[in-house]
Design brief:
This protein has seven helices and no strands. It is mainly α and 136 residues long. α4 packs across α7 and α5 crosses α7.
C-alpha cells in the first residue's frame, strides 16, 4: 500500500535524493533543449535576413545556363555533394539555392519541421567533414 514518505528512514532519504537529482537533470535538459532551439531559430533568422544582391555580372551570366555541378569550381565540394544521399541533396539545394524554409520542405516531403531540419543539418555536417578530409 501507499505510504507517505517522511524522509526519516535511510531508503526514504535515498529516494528523496534520487527524486531531487532526477528532477534537476530533467529541468537542465529541458533548458538546454530550449536554448538550442532558440539558437537554431536565431541562426536561421540571420541567414534569411542577409540581403540578396541583385546585381549580376558577366561571370554570373556565363554560369546561368550550366548545371550546378558544372558551376562548382571546388572539386572537394562537388565530391562532398556526391557523397550525401539524394534526399539530403534535395533538402540542401532547396534550402540553399531556392531559399525555401523548413516548413515548406516538410509539407512537400510529408515530414515534420524537425525531420527536415535534421536532414539539412546532417547534410551540412557530412559536407563539412568530407571537405576537411579532402583538403588535407
Amino acid at each position: 500500500m501507499w505510504q507517505k514518505n517522511n524522509g526519516k528512514s535511510e531508503t526514504e532519504m535515498l529516494q528523496n535524493l534520487f527524486t531531487a537529482y532526477l528532477t534537476t537533470a530533467v529541468r537542465r535538459r529541458r533548458n538546454d533543449y530550449i536554448k538550442q532551439a532558440v539558437r537554431i531559430q536565431q541562426m536561421e533568422g540571420m541567414a534569411e535576413d542577409i540581403p540578396y544582391n541583385q546585381d549580376q555580372g558577366a561571370e554570373e551570366d556565363m554560369f546561368r545556363g550550366l548545371h550546378l555541378p558544372m558551376q562548382l569550381e571546388d572539386s572537394a565540394l562537388l565530391h562532398a555533394l556526391k557523397g550525401i544521399s539524394e534526399r539530403e541533396r534535395h533538402v540542401f539545394f532547396a534550402r540553399v539555392l531556392d531559399e525555401r524554409g523548413f516548413e515548406s520542405l516538410a509539407e512537400e516531403m510529408g515530414l515534420g519541421y524537425k525531420g527536415v531540419a535534421t536532414i539539412y543539418y546532417r547534410a551540412l555536417r557530412k559536407i563539412k567533414k568530407k571537405m576537411k578530409e579532402l583538403r588535407k
